[in-house]
């Protein structure tokens, strides 16, 4: 597969944005593979994702950032990211004791559905170490308590940086991350919450769903921010439940929704299809 | 169609309940058409719905209540309701200005999907009177404000009683019912809330869903209790949404979910398939 | 609401298409409101929908076609349609005896969800005439049998043309249209088939779904072509069913899916969001 | 967890069936945990699943079959199966080269969601042997071609019998089983077909779904019979797709549906919740 470039852009809406960007690609002999744009009139913002083939592109890959910023980005006040498809993203996975999301991620990685490197599995417990071993992924036991939290988080960040980690997936990791850690990895930590947010924020969502007598349960994947369960939502899904289901049944059914919704978010992240803006996300085609 | 009897039962769980009830029907030559039972171990309660053909049943319909209570109900501390399928339920509809749920109910009534009588359309506004006229249903304009609420609700109850109304459907009726009215019509008022409860309780759910950036919107039908949006849930459904959708789009998409979820609750109610218990509902097959 | 232009384009894929079209709009002071494009590499085709505000557009609306064809369309071998949002589409509805889809369409029209004119309700039976009267839409009884089919279809086409009808919706119309009629109204007749195509093509889909013991039933809206039930699919949806459901239950549940799926297709058609190509459809955002 | 008995019954519908069976359990001091029954009026058949606690049951487990047949089964012409919850079902898995369903089954087994023993993984290829090793499940390479099919199937049956295998799961096993094998394991082989049956029976369903331009793809789990893809359906599900998706995307999205639908069937089988009758299945609560 040949290398292509992906630009994710947002800026205040103004005339000519699409024309400028597509002209930049076209004039330099880039062939557009995908283009998706969105204007949010509510907030007056423009969002765009454009992917083009680099085979005949006149600007060398390592100069594209400079040229784009100089010729277009600066003039329109754009914030933008540039990615190359030949660069495999590098992902770390944080877990505690529940294995279903971890298994699901590893399986998708193993079958080639997730085209990425897994740099590390990090856990505050040792229970899932055997799974990491089965899949030959380095496992790091980094126990965290109230006293050592800052220190252990800094150690974790140092480790992940050394491993050139691009983003982190919390696969039912049962620790609240500090504000400092959230800032360091801003928009680069994806969490799965086991409810249909904003319903049942916080602890014990299945128990509370049972008590409320809901007829659907859900799960939500989102970027982690300092506000617990309040970050930009990437994906959500639900499953029907009934009076037949006990809390244990809800947990069992919920696991499937969790796996699906977390993996969907990871897939979108790996393909650079998500653009968070404020508390919302643009999900490109 | 021949007449059949439907018993909805609940009581503390104890051995022999199914055997006793089915034996009561069988011994008196009733042919069981449907039977569904549920035991909620969490609260130690037994729930049952049984429907049997009355063609050869030895006990005359007007004596079944007496016999059942004397022979079984009393001994097991049962609470139960008896319905006959030949008796068409009588439903009133409350509306304000939004027409989509009203149209949907009238259409299902008109095509025979809802086997019931509509005793009245009641509204605090006159905007939808023309729809009532189109469908030849009596329309009652009963304006309500802070001062006249008690009086107008009592007038409404008197009217509905005179019309032998069994239950009320709030088809996007934008008034909060008083505690007194809720008690009078306990478990006999079905509301549609335009969100996936318990998310976005209260006012402006679509606006708040938009602001939160959710990826699914929903609707919830439930029995009305004195606690706003806290009554037992009958049905819920959701539809996917994306960053492309404005608040107006959410409202448009939401209307479809509202119609579907409200009509599903009405259908279940008409067939005596719902048994509320505390804050939950048993939905029989 | 101000007037805007919508271009639906397809042509063989080639470099610079997006740049050319957006530049055409931008250079003439059109402000792009929506842009969605798609490249189908399988068939080497490019598809695009672009909508722009006409307020400051330098080319007068009645000249846009000429200019676009001369400056761009011809050079790239494009097939394209131009629509203006201020022109309300004009739709005819064909029915037989089943009322649920008709009611649903009329209700959405009545509440403003469908921004269009309904030119006529045409039927080979008189059963639903009263509904047309309720909603004040002209009803035309045009009975069709084997002998008079050609003549009656020609009469229908003449009538619809006189009424400036843009497209036709078959709302459970139980007649097979002739090849000639299909050609005349090519890609302008939308049908609802009461199964999840290609499963259960042809007659009695619910009976056959019951016999096969499926666990989901569905409906499909599609453009009508000379090949029965083989035209390009616009929308599909399903609902879960179980062994509890009789054929009549499947029909009842199916009606809801049919209404939803047909109305979704009509909505997309009214907003010029569908582009059929061969046997497939592009559904723009 | 204490031991309980599960009876799955079907017979011609006749009065008193529920009363007789519940009375049998009750009189002998069995406490009913679950009861679900269904009457199919279309074919005049009665279906029932009843589960009761054996703690105080007067009839010893190994005598229940005799007693039930003598006292009730024979008199009503019942066909029935008796299961005990303390007996872990024993399942074999057949695979070829695709790993996603295998991983999903092993993961659910590993996390305790599937309460069963896996007796063997059987494959006509060696590609997935490493997964069997990772999960410590015996792997048997049994290559099959036109010449050795009968022989190899007999060898497989002998192996599975020796391992006391109760049922077989075809987790994307790409061999057509012989009629003889299907008869031997009648209603004990569960397959996943990668389409929404009866659409796209046979080979290459995703390619054909793409060509037909469907808007939903699906998967179907069913019991295997001698008629390919025609056996009784256990579960079905779908996912939305669009013109954006290539055949490879359909396959990727489809894998998720396949895993879910196959695992749902296995779960139902393990809990003795499925009763096939002719070409349909009763799925109990």
From TrEMBL, chains A, B, C, D:
Keyword Hydrolase set for record: yes
Keywords: Hydrolase, One-carbon metabolism, Purine biosynthesis
GO molecular function: formyltetrahydrofolate deformylase activity
Ranges where the ACT domain occurs: 6-87
GO biological process, one term: 'de novo' IMP biosynthetic process
Role, per record: Catalyzes the hydrolysis of 10-formyltetrahydrofolate (formyl-FH4) to formate and tetrahydrofolate (FH4).
Entry protein name: Formyltetrahydrofolate deformylase
Organism: Neolewinella marina
């Amino acid at each position: 597969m040949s290398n292509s470039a992906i630009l994710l852009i947002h800026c205040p809406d103004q005339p000519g944005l699409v024309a400028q960007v597509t002209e930049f690609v076209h004039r330099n002999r880039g062939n557009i593979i995908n283009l998706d744009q969105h204007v949010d009139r509510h907030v007056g913002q423009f969002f765009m994702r454009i992917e083009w083939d680099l085979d005949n592109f006149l600007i060398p890959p390592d100069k594209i950032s400079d040229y784009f910023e100089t010729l277009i980005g600066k003039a329109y006040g754009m914030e933008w990211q540039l990615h190359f498809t030949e660069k495999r993203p590098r992902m770390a996975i944080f877990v505690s004791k529940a294995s279903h999301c971890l298994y699901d991620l590893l399986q998708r990685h193993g079958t080639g559905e997730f085209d990425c490197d897994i740099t590390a599995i990090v856990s505050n417990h040792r229970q899932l170490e055997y799974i990491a071993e089965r899949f030959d992924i380095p496992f790091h036991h980094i126990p965290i308590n109230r006293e050592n939290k800052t220190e252990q988080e800094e150690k974790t960040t140092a480790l992940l940086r050394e491993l050139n980690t691009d983003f982190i997936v919390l696969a039912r990791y049962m620790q609240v991350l500090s504000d400092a850690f959230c800032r360091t990895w801003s928009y680069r930590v994806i969490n799965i919450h086991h409810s249909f947010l904003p319903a049942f924020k916080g602890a014990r969502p299945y128990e509370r769903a049972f008590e409320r007598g809901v007829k659907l349960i859900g799960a939500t994947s989102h970027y982690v921010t300092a506000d617990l369960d309040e970050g930009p939502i990437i994906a959500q899904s639900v499953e029907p439940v009934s009076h037949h289901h006990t809390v244990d049944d809800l947990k069992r059914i919920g696991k499937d929704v969790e796996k699906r919704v977390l993996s969907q978010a990871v897939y979108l992240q790996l393909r650079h299809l998500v653009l968070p803006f404020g508390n919302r996300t643009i999900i490109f085609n």
